[in-house]
Specification:
With 134 residues, this protein is of the alpha+beta class. Helices cover 25% and strands 17% of the residues. The longest helix has 33 residues.
Length: 134
């Protein structure tokens, strides 16, 4: 018998390539940067889609008087008082005519000194409606 090794030969270990390690690290870094840069873009697009005119509204009321003339501002503030008027008109023109005339049945201020805090205001108005046309 030929002389042989005392123990069986161990299988040769494959040498691990650093290719897969480098690929995994590179893909991880790429995904992190993609998420980091894509998130603000998606967020901005979502805001512009849901509220396209948000940049036109005034964000700071203090010290901005006269600076931003193109910004939309509220006409009435929370504490400003205003009046509410109502008008009821009736058409006096003939049916089928291109132009019709109208005359007011009622026109008056129905609420005085109202603020935006006032809710659920009710009133009644007396109007005489001519029924001969009906």
């Amino acid at each position: 018998m030929p002389a042989g090794p005392l123990s069986p030969a161990l299988p040769l270990r494959k040498r691990k390539s650093c290719f897969w390690f480098t690929t995994k690290i590179s893909l991880s870094v790429l995904v992190i940067f993609a998420i980091r840069f894509a998130y603000p873009l998606v967020k901005t697009a979502a805001i512009r889609f849901t509220d396209p005119y948000s940049e036109l509204f005034l964000k700071d009321l203090e010290g901005s008087e006269g600076e931003n003339t193109e910004i939309v501002k509220a006409l009435v503030g929370k504490d400003d008082k205003f009046d509410i008027a109502a008008s009821v008109w009736i058409s006096t023109g003939q049916q089928g005519a291109m132009t019709t005339e109208a005359k007011p049945l009622y026109s008056d201020i129905i609420f005085r000194g109202v603020t935006l805090k006032d809710k659920g205001l009710l009133t009644s108005v007396r109007i005489k409606v001519p029924t001969m046309r009906l």
